[in-house]
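User: Hey, my collaborator sent me this sequence without any context and asked if I could get a structure. I don't really work with proteins. Can you help?
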Amino acid sequence: MMKLFGPISRIAIGLVSITIGLLLVVSFLGVLRDDVEMARQARTLAAEDLSIQLAVLLQKDDNEALKRTIDAISSRDGEILSVGLRRNSGDIQVESADHAKHWVPLKDAKSTTTHVSVPIHAGKDVWGNVEISFRPVVPKTWLGWIRHPLVLMLGTMIIGGFLLYYWYMRRVLEHLDPTKAIPDRVRKALDTLTEGVIVLDTNGRIVLANEAFRALNNQDDKVGLSARRASEIPWLRASLGEREPDDHPWTIAMRDSVTVVGEMLEFTHLPDGSRKAKLAASPITDGRGAVRGCLVSLNDVTELDRKNVELERTLSELEASREKIEAQNEELKLLANIDPLTGSMNRRAFFEVAEQMIAQAKSEGSHICCLMTDIDKFKNFNDTYGHAVGDQVLIQVSRVLKAALRPTDVMCRYGGEEFCILLPGVDALRAAVVAERIRFRVEAQAGPGIRSIPGLRVTASFGLTSLEFGAPGLKTLIDEADQALYSAKQTGRNKVVRYDEMPSGGRHAVAGGG
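Assistant: No problem. I've predicted the 3D structure and written it out in structure-token form, which is a compact way to encode the shape of the chain:
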């Protein structure tokens, strides 16, 4: 239960308990008045005075006067409930209202604090008794006890005393120097550390700050660090940003009993420029595991951070250089593999890719066909319109060929106006259909694509062969396609000729252009 209260609250409760205990001891020694005994004595005297008055009226035998006197006393005195005048025979001579209700016969004829009986003498003989019923001195209900002066006094002492003691102890402890509780050897040991260290109490006040932390304190800040809340130090609070005090690292460490590490702070108040430090906050617990404070350290990582920034900058520059070199290598590779005029693969690069495709097709037993195509009468374009138009013809034919092929097909500018195409996964029959479609596109699109020469007609001839015709390798396959191309040239141009459909006598002729 006491864990719910702080040290100041426990001290205040202890002081209130001591005060109440002293009051009880004083009461036990009889220094304080006994309200019950005083009430009994006062009521006995009042009853004796009343008996004297009533005895005088009895001698006058004036019952009316007796009745008026008894009623007046009952109504006037708030402590008296009823009054009765009883003979020795037990008969009531005169009584106030409800006397029978309030009066209780005495045990052994002894009066109490609530029921007092006083004898009335007629000469030397006892005529009877005056019976008086008083209100109880001690409350009989909870409400009565709450209103009792003693209970009110104790309640005031407990509540008021706690509040006053708490306020007083809080003010006193705030003005005490908590650093006096730290031994000098501990101070000296912490001063040898290069990182700033502060020890906080459970309220976040600084109990100890080593030399490195004091060096971080602003020179313009004339307020000392002792007994000061860490959250109230301007430069430390500014480094934490807009966070509320409940979200500060040391508050979290003490509240959740966890170690907070890795908080990177930047201090801009120092005359030699901004500094960066890594903060760590660890709760300090006693032998029972209760949190008694917090140890906060600030490790200056300014130089390390600068080195990291420089390293990151260098790495960034190296990465940029690497990317630039890779881009240049890609460009060089592109220049080495791509024909600069048509953008098609050049002959050297084509052979590297084609060899792999042939080897894979043979190992898998799949089809692959080769097309050799040549622009018909290309020399006429150069002679008639100039080499610039001839270059445009090459470019347009290359574009038409590329547009007609699949992504898996491979094409290169084999030399001059001649192009070589590999069609993987296609047999000779289908390849003939593809070649015919490409031939038609060249005739329909290549010439109109050159707008500088309206009505220009461009056609191409095609020679087709397939791996299924028995070629052992790429070189033979290209040679067969070239022979079929030559046959197409010799038999009218602008057509597709298959190698297997050529006359056997013409299969070994040397291909020529034109």
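In plain terms: Residues 302-337 form the longest helix (36 residues). You can pass these tokens on to your collaborator as they are.
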